[in-house]
Design goal:
mainly alpha, 5 helices
Length: 141
């Protein structure tokens, strides 16, 4: 066990400004992602009825959480995937609160899982974008 403790002790990350969780950003991103899902889904229901909703809601959930996780990640320096997952979690919690945690069809449960996946993927993309130097970051020779 001392070896494990040594390994874990070496992995401690200082909790500086760049390593903290940006809760306000995650809350705003999750709220906007869920609002955007409603903006996409409501016109579909009004024009085509309830049946397409089972197909549109999961896709909209994935895409909106992906996009808003990228947006949240633009101002971060670290923990991109975590912030993306938080965006998806906030969006899911908002929907569950709006429906008062009533039982949902399997397509909606899938949509909630896709919110987390979309958020994580968006955070990953935001982190990759941050890691790639822009042409202005490359020193001139």
């Amino acid at each position: 066990m001392p070896i494990i403790r040594t390994i874990l002790a070496d992995r401690k990350v200082p909790m500086n400004a760049s390593a903290r969780i940006h809760w306000i950003r995650a809350l705003i991103g999750g709220f906007l992602a869920e609002a955007a899902v409603f903006v996409v889904v409501i016109p579909v229901v009004m024009t085509a009825g309830q049946h397409p909703l089972l197909y549109v809601a999961p896709v909209a959930s994935l895409v909106m959480c992906f996009l808003f996780a990228i947006w949240v990640g633009r101002g971060l320096e670290s923990r991109f995937v975590l912030h993306g997952i938080l965006v998806g979690a906030v969006a899911t919690l908002i929907y569950v609160a709006l429906t008062r945690a009533q039982p949902e069809p399997p397509a909606y449960l899938l949509a909630h899982a896709l919110k987390l996946l979309g958020g994580a993927a968006g955070g990953f993309v935001a982190g990759r974008r941050r890691a790639v130097p822009s042409p202005t970051d490359v020193p001139a020779h």
